[in-house]
Amino acid sequence: MLTPTHVMIFSLVLFGVGVFGVLTRRNIIIVLMSLELILNAANLNFVAFSWAHPSIHGQVFALFVICVAAGEVAVGLAILITLFRNRNSVNIDEFHLMKG
Amino acid sequence: MSVVQRPELSLWKRLFLVELLQGMAVTFRHWWRKPTTEQYPKERPKILPRFRGIPKLQDHPDVEGILCIACNQCSIICPDDCITVLGEPRTVGKGKQAKVFILDYERCCLCGLCEEVCPTTPVPAIFMSHEYELARYKRVDLMNDMKELYEPQPTKEYLK
Amino acid sequence: MTEVSLPLFLVFAAVGVFGAVMMVTRTQPVHSALYLVLTLFSVAAIYVLLHAEFLAVVQILVYAGGIMVLFLFVIFLVRPPVPGEARWHGGRHVLLSAGLAVILACALGWHFLESAPAAAGNPSALLEGGNMEQVSMTLFRYYILPFETVSILLLVSMIGAIALARKGEGV
Amino acid sequence: MKEQLIQYLAVPMLQIAAIIGVMLLCVMYLVLWERKLIAFMQVRMGPMRVGYHGLLQPIADVVKLLLKEDVVPKAADRWVHLISPIILMIPALACFAVIPFTGTSFEVGAFTIPLVNYDVPALTVTSWVADLNIGLLYFLAISSLGVYGLVLAGWSSNSKYSMLGSLRSAAQMISYEVPLGLSIVAILMLSGTASLVGIVEAQQEAGHWWLFWAPLGVPLLWPQFIGLFLYFVAAVAETNRAPFDLPEAETELVAGFHTEYSGMKFAFMFLAEYLNMILAALIVSVLFLGGWLPVTFGIPGLSELFGNFLPFLGGAGAAITGFFWLALKVFLVLTVYLWLRATFPRYRYDQLMSLGWKWLIPMGLAHVMVTALFMLLRG
């Protein structure tokens, strides 16, 4: 029998891997992809809960999350391209303009 | 060079894509036309009398023996240097006749100068035949000596 | 359906975790993106198991069909990684991050699992009269304002992305 | 349990095998028909050698492609190079799962398989593998995945022509997915369902194809013509066919994304392209042209006559008739597809983009609104 706990464990693993990716990778594109992973983990929880208490609202919220993720990626990648044009690199360590 | 301005399309033409439909009508009409191409190995092209195929040798009933007198003029005028002629005394009558005549089809450009320059009468000994199928399996097969130039191996016709 | 849902879930979850781990560890960004697509797919499959058909399709349409293609585009546009360049932070950093991620996940997990909901009703109610119909009814009955807000958000992000990515004047 | 296993596992497997087999055959002969038709339009004969008027040419082509050497460039990413034709192929085949080929289902009585003495219970076999509630969305989602195959093929070949071709194709497919989706929305509104079976049934109920939906009772006002036009243009662009075949513009990019492909892998890409064409034609037929409904549908008298022109076969006759009408429609749509290729020159890249974004998308939005308005006025 599939229970919400199973799905939650899976989403926790995805979340953990995503956080690890965000913290360790230097390539900013992969950092952005790890962020997508974290969003997906959150979405999975929404859907699991909506399934456990039969209620459609969780799915609707996940839909909103997907929309926001799409917007986030569009802007994030545009920023990335601008950065690449100005500094000719996608290495996250090289972007420390604010550092004193 | 002159710049040609495209005529401005009327609203009717723009709205209903008239010109696209006209284009499609043209292709539609062509669909039903009789094909103009010929099915080559099955159907052979009609060859006109002055067509220049590969050069070959010929004899004439009015002249005894070999018609070619080994004058070497064809070999000299040939822009591709593809003709080699060696002579020997004629077996009947005076003068020379060809002993060796080698023609390299690989180099021949089918210009017809050899036929023009050939001095023999009543017909030139070397002439442009109507044969045009030059493909061979080996390059050596394109080097033809006298025997092959007289009696060409007929190309195996590819039917079907 | 219910008897096979657990083994199916385990298969998809395994594929998903495999994809996620590979995604984070690959050095070639294109491979990373491909593994992420794999993970997104298995998540979509799990959505189907959880009676969220419409969401599964949206996940494939938006994530796999749109967002990841965008990622691939950007990967192609920017310079490929130089062979000798370090793609990871240092060893201690990796260990620390791994530890942090595990601790974070464990803390969340402890909290979650303590309050894990049991299946409270019949989940197949989510499919009655069509999942898509239910989602859209809810969306347009209760969430019309958020819906419009999201559309404005998307418009703004679209214009922002164009403005940012344009060459030359401005920026 | 056993009956369930057969109903939910064995029957779909057989259906899938049948669909794949028939579709591969269709692709082979579609290629022949394309070569023949374009040859006719160019006042040529087309393939004539293998078989009567080249009828066995597809088989010769397949044998040639399968026996060819598989060349992989030295600097290619071998794995991605290998999987990208497969990635192209899978979505193209997966989309066929939701297509209804005929309305009537076949009744298969209980029988025993002789040698193994296995009893097969009575079954009802439908012409579709799955009647998904979200069928149309499934089609849109799955068909949008084909772009990966192109992009990865171009990238993994490590060649500038492939790369340019694949980037063009990705941009083109993403741009034209929007008008494609918009042109379908009106049909969704008219049918009130996203299931492809449901859409055809809705047309049956309405008494006419959606193409001839006449709002306000005005006989010659058919707004779905715009929808059909939009869908068709977008589908031609989506399948990378002429006049929108920029990704494989042979005069500019050698062969585009499949420059570095040969043998089996190339055959897969080729197959996927033609499968997508057939798919687009099937969707046009189902959404706008009434799917399995006869061509004479809606004309009193003729409709009944041609609805089942094999009455002596009973239910099977009706099913076969449905197949026939759908096949006829698909054939005609595909012929128009090829006709376009024979007629129009290739678009320039900026023209392609401006057509997609500046004309088709606004037209699609307007079309949705006009349809909605007419539906409202009609009540």
TrEMBL record, chain A:
GO terms of biological process kind: ATP synthesis coupled electron transport
Family membership: Belongs to the complex I subunit 4L family.
Record-annotated membrane-spanning stretches: 6-23, 30-52, 58-84
Assembly mode: NDH-1 is composed of 14 different subunits. Subunits NuoA, H, J, K, L, M, N constitute the membrane sector of the complex.
EC top class, as a word: translocase
Membrane topology: Multi-pass membrane protein
Keyword presence, Cell inner membrane: no
Any GO CC annotation of this UniProt entry: NADH dehydrogenase complex
Keyword set, alphabetical order: Cell membrane, Membrane, NAD, Oxidoreductase, Quinone, Translocase, Transmembrane, Transmembrane helix, Transport, Ubiquinone
Function: NDH-1 shuttles electrons from NADH, via FMN and iron-sulfur (Fe-S) centers, to quinones in the respiratory chain. The immediate electron acceptor for the enzyme in this species is believed to be ubiquinone. Couples the redox reaction to proton translocation (for every two electrons transferred, four hydrogen ions are translocated across the cytoplasmic membrane), and thus conserves the redox energy in a proton gradient.
Molecular function GO terms recorded: NADH dehydrogenase (quinone) (non-electrogenic) activity; quinone binding
Known catalytic reactions: a quinone + NADH + 5 H(+)(in) = a quinol + NAD(+) + 4 H(+)(out)
Protein name: NADH-quinone oxidoreductase subunit K
Matches recorded under Gene3D superfamilies: 1.10.287.3510
Entry's EC annotation: 7.1.1.-
Predominant subcellular localization, coarse grouping: membrane
Coiled coil: none
From TrEMBL, chain C:
Gene Ontology cellular-component terms listed: plasma membrane
Catalytic activity, reaction form: a quinone + NADH + 5 H(+)(in) = a quinol + NAD(+) + 4 H(+)(out)
Location of the protein in the cell: Cell membrane
Segments traversing the membrane: 6-25, 32-50, 56-78, 90-113, 142-165
Pfam families cross-referenced by the UniProt entry: Oxidored_q3
Swiss-Prot/TrEMBL keywords: Cell membrane, Membrane, NAD, Quinone, Transmembrane, Transmembrane helix
Domain of life, per lineage: Bacteria
Secretion signal, residue range per the UniProt entry: none
Membrane topology field: Multi-pass membrane protein
EC top class named in words: translocase
Gene Ontology molecular-function annotations: NADH dehydrogenase (ubiquinone) activity; quinone binding
Function statement: NDH-1 shuttles electrons from NADH, via FMN and iron-sulfur (Fe-S) centers, to quinones in the respiratory chain. Couples the redox reaction to proton translocation (for every two electrons transferred, four hydrogen ions are translocated across the cytoplasmic membrane), and thus conserves the redox energy in a proton gradient.
UniProt name for this protein: NADH-quinone oxidoreductase subunit J
Taxonomic lineage of the native organism: Bacteria, Pseudomonadati, Acidobacteriota, Candidatus Polarisedimenticolia, Candidatus Polarisedimenticolales
From TrEMBL, chain D:
EC class of the enzyme, as a word: translocase
Catalytic activity: a quinone + NADH + 5 H(+)(in) = a quinol + NAD(+) + 4 H(+)(out)
GO BP: any one term: aerobic respiration
Topological category with respect to the lipid bilayer: Multi-pass membrane protein
Transferase found in the keyword field: no
GO molecular function, one term: NADH dehydrogenase activity
Coiled-coil parts of chain: none
Membrane-spanning intervals of the chain: 6-30, 79-101, 136-155, 176-200, 220-237, 274-293, 313-339, 359-377
Keywords of this entry: Cell membrane, Membrane, NAD, Oxidoreductase, Quinone, Translocase, Transmembrane, Transmembrane helix, Ubiquinone
Protein task: NDH-1 shuttles electrons from NADH, via FMN and iron-sulfur (Fe-S) centers, to quinones in the respiratory chain. The immediate electron acceptor for the enzyme in this species is believed to be ubiquinone. Couples the redox reaction to proton translocation (for every two electrons transferred, four hydrogen ions are translocated across the cytoplasmic membrane), and thus conserves the redox energy in a proton gradient. This subunit may bind ubiquinone.
SUBUNIT field: NDH-1 is composed of 14 different subunits. Subunits NuoA, H, J, K, L, M, N constitute the membrane sector of the complex.
Official protein name in the record: NADH-quinone oxidoreductase subunit H
Protein's gene: nuoH
